[in-house]
Amino acid sequence: MFRKTLTALLLSVAASLTFAQTTRTVRLNTTDDVGIIGTYYPADQPHAPAVLLIHSIFRDHTVWTDFATLLQHNGIAALAIDLRGHGESTRKLTAEGPVKIDLRNLTSRDFQDMLLDIEAAIDWLQAQPEIDNKHIALIGESVGANVALRYAAINEDLSAVVLFSPGLNYRSVRTDDVIRQLGHIPLHIFVSQSDDFAFRSSKRLIEIRTELGITDATNELTVCTGSLHGSEMLKGVRNLPQIILAWLKAPLLGVTAPTVNTPPPIVPPDATAPPK
Asked: Which H or E run contains 237?
């Protein structure tokens, strides 16, 4: 009896230690030979859905640490990457050898090419045996939201898209020209009411989808009070991570999200002013 109990205890400890290895570094190569670094948060169950997290300019994948951990502990794997020129993703191979990508010198083309960073990360997730590659969502913030939306518009195999503070045009990465191609992929935009340009942009993106006949169930806008931008809202808006998690559970896990009563968005007085 003692031996069986000890064996059971050791197996339990081993399982706990396996899950204690909560993250691991992922190294990817894009089709244009940029090295992309990320952190992977595996779920503690097989055949798990996954979320790819995309940061904004001047940030890196660590802005998602708390939220990625929340997803992980709720049965959803997560991968947060450094976009080219950010964090540790600063090396590109050329015919003359490796060169450094300087964040300060990123061009409009570099921001467009971030689609390749997302492509490499999605390909990696889909290749993982523990991932349900039919249930992968994409989340982005600010210019990262714009890049994420452009990728989703040409990749119908995504299960859901969440955008924090997108713009109609950030760093020459537009969204209004591709939003019509998104189809019926569930979309949820989160924006602060006093984040003027992002607020007006988000309203317009939802309006375009509404004009196309996309139903409310897959075309949602949540307006938060204040002026927090992008992933800052996750820490500054009470219960927002849990609200997003609940929403994601429907397209990723088939769990119906609870109804949340939210007040209608309030349009700032200068909502018609041109962007700064």
From this structure: none
**Phi then psi dihedrals of residue 221, to 5 deg:** -130, 125
Q: Full-prediction pTM beyond 0.70? A: yes
Query: Would residue 176 count as lying in a domain?
Result: yes
- Bridge-based pairing of strands 77-81 and 48-54 is parallel
Overall number of domains in the chain? 1
Does residue 9 sit within a domain?
no
Positions of E strands within 186-248: 187-192, 219-224
pLDDT in tens, 186-243: 999 999 999 999 999 999 999 999 999 987 778 999 999 999 999 999 999 999 999 9
Whether residue 3 is contained in a domain is answered as: no
Residue with tokens 């190294």: 27
**CATH code of residue 186:** 3.40.50.1820
Q: Element (H or E) spanning 37, and its range?
A: strand 34-41
Burial bucket for residue 125 (CB in 10 Å: 0-12, 13-18, 19+): buried
Range of the domain at 234: 23-253
What whole-number distance in Å separates Cα of residue 31 and Cα of residue 154? 17
Q: Give yes or no for a contact between 160 and 254, defined as CB atoms under 8 angstroms apart.
A: no
Question: Would 7 be classed as within a structural domain?
Answer: no
